[in-house]
Amino acid sequence: MNKVINNKSSETISFWYDPDKRSIFYQIGAACLFAFVAWYLISNTMANLERQSIATGFGFLNKEAAFEIGESLIEYSAADRYARALSVGFLNTLLVSFIGILLTVVLGTFIGVARLSKNWLINKCAAGYIELFQDIPVLLQLFFWYAFFYEMLPSPREALSPFTGLFLCNRGLIFGIPQAHPVYKYMLIAILIAVIVTFLLKKWAKKRQDLTGKAFPVFYTSIALILGLPFASWLIGGAPTEMSIPVLKGFNFKGGLTISPEFAALLLGLVLYTAAFVAEVVRAGIQAVSKGQTEAAMAIGLKPGQLLNLIILPQALRVIIPPLTSQMLNLTKNSSLAVAIGYPDFVSVAGTAINQTGQAIEGVMLIMIVYLIFSLSTSAFMNWYNKKMAIVER
Amino acid sequence: MKLLKVLAVCLTVLAMSTFAMAGTLEDVRAKGYIQAGVNGSLFGFGKADEKGVWKGLDVDSARALSVAVFGSPDKLKFTPLTAKTRFTALQSGEIDVLFRNCTQTLSRDTALGLDFCQVNYYDGQGFLIPRKLGVKSAKELDGATVCVLPGTTTEMNVADYFRANGMKMNPVVIEDTSELAKAFFAGRCDCLTSDASQLAGTRAVAPNPADYMILPEIISKEPLAPAVRHGDNQWKDIVNYSVLAMINAEELGITSKNVDEMLKSSDPKIKRFLGVTKGNGKAIGLDENFAYNIIKMVGNYGEIFERNVGVNTQLGIERGLNALWTDGGLMYSPPFK
């Protein structure tokens, strides 16, 4: 033994005492164990399903769904297949999560900044908001908002109509939208072009400022571009003004666009709840930037806007982004509570599919895959943004 | 170490679930009680009252089974199940039998690996509407917003009905029965659709029941039957004949009140049924007097119907399809011989 320790060359160390070899051995062992457990679970499940003569597989996706879905971003009817029905649910989850995340970030930032305000009233209001919405379970908040909408608002026949073309009742908020016309497609393209031009302009302006020191009013130019280009294309396209105005026909309104109470309640509940957490994240991020930075910036004569944009935010964002990502993921996952208040999200539609076909394992697997896709793509985007925002050491 | 422990537990559970499938009757006798899946929140079918006593038509059917196996109506443990979880609970062996107003359908009987037993309630899907809407027939519901309870055949039935009649509908699907009822009473939907028995139960708890009516159209067949796992024929026979015994008793005029006198009857049908003439018990693998015990301790079908859902209860449901075949209904038992 002594000999081995004294003689430090690797060839004389026995297999068991070489940490490198040992770790490889352990890893192979762990992998084998994992593979064995996975094989056991899967083969056992398959055997049990077979013995109880339960049908398996994803063949059901091609069968006729035969149930209706309340709201859908794409054309859907009961005659479509399960795959289509599930896509409707997928898009509904995507819609509520996407809009929810945008609103949450805006509202959360606003409240987080208000929480740091020197104005006593604003400060305390923000603190009260955070405590209230953080401490009540989100499911209760959803029930509250949903009940609020259907209890407080009148029936369609007595709908509130503050001005022509807009109705508010317990079937939702129904409003007129422009009648379909080819020019709207071109307006969309115009907006896209404007965004790209703005992006290039910003790059060019920064380069010019670095070289010559002259600033370019990027903000106002880009606003003019983004509003102006689509407007111009609308004018060129013949300026159509025809509207699709909702009218009460039979039980419900026909025409226009409807925002259902289910969607509104889910969105409101999720945004108000998650914004309370985001506000705390934003406050912590801003407070993490030391006071000296602010004082130094003021000393060299930066305006308050520049102070926030050039000094505070770039440093605060590094602290804010990682916990913000997890709040975004929370919002997406919490959107599955939709099933409690009747919004047809993915879980709700998949639940119906599971029940009608009995394919529980496949259905639950689909639900897991969908949420995994949402979560992984959100965090991939946020990680990229985080890297971009990280301070580059010079 | 922790990982190893978790693994060990997983493997043990798996191994146990593999062995637990021997024969449900032996399993049930060994553990001394029957684990029955019930609704849990449906008044008249399966719901615990304010004292915690389980009541309802399905619960009484389960009690009949308990009497048949153990000679006592209380050897039962109830598992309240939602429409979504009920079949998984049965498939996985978590419960021994499902008495939860389940509609028997071809795909459930086959692809789900279940076996349905004797129907204990013939139901059908209908529509509940507020009277002030002025609708007299389901055919006038084009464009209506419909509150639907998910996880049942209801969603498909109502979609089929609207499609067949060339009408449009806008469903609002809420998981929880009482939340759905609240939304409907507040006017979120024009009508509520479900099995007619459930609609009667929902109307009974409305703020003002007289403001609501059930439309005459019944748009589906819903034979509600207890279910067991596929492949255990003896257990299926026992569940089947526990329910049939109550129907047969009503047909023979035997009630929980007169069952003792009936023991002295000279009618060979009654003698065989009550086990005075032996043979039935041995054939099915139970006590010779299992039918006598069921009627004595639980009652005949007419009694449990009137007690739980009949005209004198809050639900106020007529016998209708659930009357004996001799009275123009569908309840019919094969002879006990």
Short overview:
With 394 residues, chain A is mostly helical. Chain A has a domain at 82-147 and 260-389: MetI-like (MetI-like fold).
Describe the protein's architecture and organization.
The complex is a heterodimer of chains A (394) and B (337). Chain A has a domain at 82-147 and 260-389: Orthogonal Bundle (MetI-like fold), CATH 1.10.3720.10. Chain A contains twelve helices and seven strands. Chain A has 394 residues and is mainly alpha-helical. In chain A, helix 3 (82-115) runs antiparallel to helix 4. Chain A has helices at 2-6, 19-51, 82-115, 120-135, 138-152, 183-212, 218-236, 261-287, 291-299, 304-334, 346-357, 360-389, and strands spanning 166-169, 172-175, 177-178, 243-244, 247-249, 252-254, 257-259. The mean pLDDT of chain A is 87. Chain A has a three-stranded antiparallel β-sheet with strand order 1-2-7. A two-stranded antiparallel ribbon of chain A has the order 3-4. Chain B is α/β, with parallel strands linked by helices. Chain B has two domains: 32-122 and 224-327, Periplasmic binding protein-like II (D-Maltodextrin-Binding Protein, domain 2), CATH 3.40.190; 125-220, Periplasmic binding protein-like II (D-Maltodextrin-Binding Protein, domain 2), CATH 3.40.190.10. Chain B contains 14 helices and 15 strands. In chain B, the strands form five sheets. Chain B has a five-stranded mixed β-sheet, sandwiched between helices. Chain B has a three-stranded parallel β-sheet with strand order 5-1-6. In chain B, strands 2-3-4 form a three-stranded antiparallel β-sheet. In chain B, helix 3 packs antiparallel against helix 13 (290-297). The chains are: A mainly alpha (394), B alpha/beta (337). The interface between A and B is large, with 48 and 53 residues.
